[in-house]
Design brief:
The chain is mainly β. Helix content is 0%, strand content 51%. The strands form six sheets. Strands 12, 15, 16, 18, 19 and 20 form a six-stranded mixed beta sheet that branches. It is rod-shaped and about 130 Å long.
Length: 215
């Protein structure tokens, strides 16, 4: 006899499924000032496409009490900063699709390490080559140093009778102790000025050019 057709009424709008995290985000790279860290978004279910943003968090050593270190962005990388030293880092991944949004956090990194002080320009004294008994010497600069800030400095004033035999005459923070009066009875010996730089990562030291003590 033949055929015919008829459509049903329309359904409601087909809804998507919001993002759901199925594998936590992770962080790769060395947790050290100046080093680049890279986040993985982890794994997610839900209606595709899913877009991701990455927010970096600075936390205590337990991975708690976190504060924002870098605002959420499409970039999955972060360069550890001086203020991160001694803290751990987490990344919060923000996942969004047509149906909604959700977030998930990575495990904490190891505590971020600092960079040891390193001298790039020697400390400088005035005079620079020789000094007389009873004369005064001033360390005009502690030199130039790189490394995690802040860096504090100490200075040692040493009288040396040989390359391996030295006595520390004065030691203390720089610049409070940047001036030194050469004691009598030291003619023919050497005056060495040693600067000790300290930061969150540890200590390093560097000597200025040695001075010959004259009568």
């Amino acid at each position: 006899a033949g055929s015919t057709e008829k459509e049903s009424a329309v359904t409601g709008e087909v809804l998507g499924v919001g993002p759901q995290n199925t594998e936590a985000p992770s962080i790769s790279g060395e947790a050290k000032e100046g080093q680049l860290l890279t986040a993985s978004s982890g794994k997610w279910s839900g209606t595709e496409p899913i877009a991701y943003e990455y927010e970096w968090l600075r936390c205590n050593t337990s991975g708690a009490s976190c504060a924002q270190a870098q605002a959420a962005s499409l970039l999955a990388t972060y360069t550890a900063k001086a203020e991160d030293v001694g803290h751990t880092l987490r990344v919060k991944v923000l996942a969004k699709n047509i149906a909604g949004s959700a977030s998930a956090e990575s495990e904490k990194t190891a505590p971020v390490k600092g960079v040891l002080p390193a001298n790039t320009v020697l400390p400088v004294t005035l005079p620079a080559v020789t000094v007389t008994e009873g004369g005064s010497v001033e360390a005009t600069t502690e030199g130039t140093w790189t490394g995690t800030q802040p860096i504090t400095y100490e200075i040692q004033w040493k009288i040396c009778s040989s390359a391996t035999s030295c006595k520390v005459e004065l030691e203390g923070p720089y610049p409070a102790n940047k001036k030194f009066k050469v004691p009598s009875g030291t003619s023919g010996k050497k005056l060495r000025i040693n600067v000790i730089a300290t930061n969150a990562a540890g200590k390093a030291e560097k000597e200025a050019l040695e001075l010959t003590i004259l009568l």
